[in-house]
Amino acid sequence: QFSNLGDYPGAELQPDPDKIIFGTQNNKPVEIYENDFIEGERLLFSAFGELVYHNEGYEDVPCYYWVSNTADELRLYRTSTKKLYKKFALSIKSDTKMNLHAPDLSLPYIFVKQ
After folding, report:
1. How far is Cα 11 from Cα 54, in angstroms, rounded to an integer?
2. pLDDT tens readout for residues 47-68
3. What is the pLDDT of residue 50?
4. Which of 15, 51, 78, 99 is 20 to 30 Å from the Cα of 45, by its Cα?
């Protein structure tokens, strides 16, 4: 489980941080398909596993996750709709720390293993 409540100044003022709770992990990517009325079955994306994104204390969102080959991008797809939920630039700092940078924010989220 990773949480963005880190050891930075003011972190204690954030009451309920976002959390990423990793669940199932696949040895190789699993292809996720959708049945389309016109096109038939079509590939949507590949998933490396499943996780739950605990969003700012409001909602637990079960997701499939995908990581780029160079480990510089993380995408989350809702398991219920198979639609893109969040997309981040990924920077792995250590075994216990990673930064996720949303395209619409200037500073990254700092996630620390709990």
Report:
1. 17
2. 999 999 998 767 899 999 999 9
3. 97
4. 99
Half-sphere exposure of 106 (CA within 13 A, CB side): 0
**Strand stretches in the chain, DSSP E:** 2-3, 19-36, 40-55, 59-67, 73-78, 84-92, 97-101, 109-113
Residue 8: strand pairing partners? none
Here the tokens at position 58 are: 């409001």
Place of tokens 């075994």: 95
**Identity at 64, one-letter amino acid code:** Y
Digit-coded pLDDT (tens) for 88-100:
999 999 999 999 9
